[in-house]
Amino acid sequence: MQEIFESIIKGLLQTGWVEAIAVIAGIVSVWYSRKENILVYPTGLINTTFYVYLSYKGHLLGEASVNLYYTIMSIYGWYLWTRKKEDQHTAFLQITKSSSKQWKQQLLFFTAFYIVIYFGLTLAKSAFAPEAIPWADAFASATAYTGMWLMAKKKVESWYWWILTNLASIPLYFIKGYAFTSVQFLILLILAIAGLQSWKTKANQQNA
């Protein structure tokens, strides 16, 4: 435990400014998403843009693709969250829970992305990225793809996928030498659990 703690401290001290800004923006973005605040998207765009660079640099090619996808979905989600109904006051999208059919769609969405990313990373590992970890990177990436898609649609279940993403990313980034990012994902895990409870409550209130 002492060696792990010392490694974390050493890693934090070696954190560059790019990673530091990305981490702070990521935490702020998730805080806003828990509050259902539109600022989740502009702060998230800062986070994702920086992490495209960091992930590629660390041979986390799946995560690099995730952050590129995040960037695109942030623009899409920003548009959906700002839409208003005819009264121009009520948000077009409300927080809702997924039906059994939608759950099946989510699982298929995750599975398809996992398979594609896994085999893509396996090829990349043998060709030019020997440090890649296909199974772990693909899992973290596919769960994140699913979570971002569902968050844009304000589905409660997005938080389940974010929890899985954070659990997988904590050790993944630590192994790659991004200790500060690992701490970020630990904080995001806590925020995701809180976000899940908050969105569940809002969904229940709207149903009532």
Write up this protein.
The protein has 208 residues and is mainly α. Helix 2 packs antiparallel against helix 3. The longest helix is centred in the C-terminal third of the chain and has 29 residues, at 179-207. The chain has eight helices and no strands. The radius of gyration is 17 Å and the shape is globular. It has one domain (2-83, 91-207).
Brief descriptors of the model:
single chain; 208 residues; mainly alpha
Quantity of strands, as a count:
0
User: What structural class do you assign from the helix and strand content?
Assistant: mainly alpha
Task: Estimate the mean pLDDT confidence.
Answer: 85
Largest sheet: none
- Helix share of residues? over 70%
Net shape:
globular
**Ranges with pLDDT <50 over ≥5 residues?**
none
Q: How far do the termini sit from each other?
A: 48 Å
Compute the gyration radius: what is it?
Answer: 17 Å
Oligomer: single chain
Residues in β-strands, percent: under 5%
Blueprint of the fold:
Elements (H helix, E strand, L loop, with lengths): L1 H12 L3 H18 L5 H18 L3 H22 L17 H28 L6 H19 L5 H18 L3 H29 L1
Helix pairs in contact: 2-3, 2-8, 3-4, 4-6, 5-6, 6-7, 7-8
Brief overview:
The protein is an all-alpha fold and 208 residues long. It is 79% helix and 0% strand.
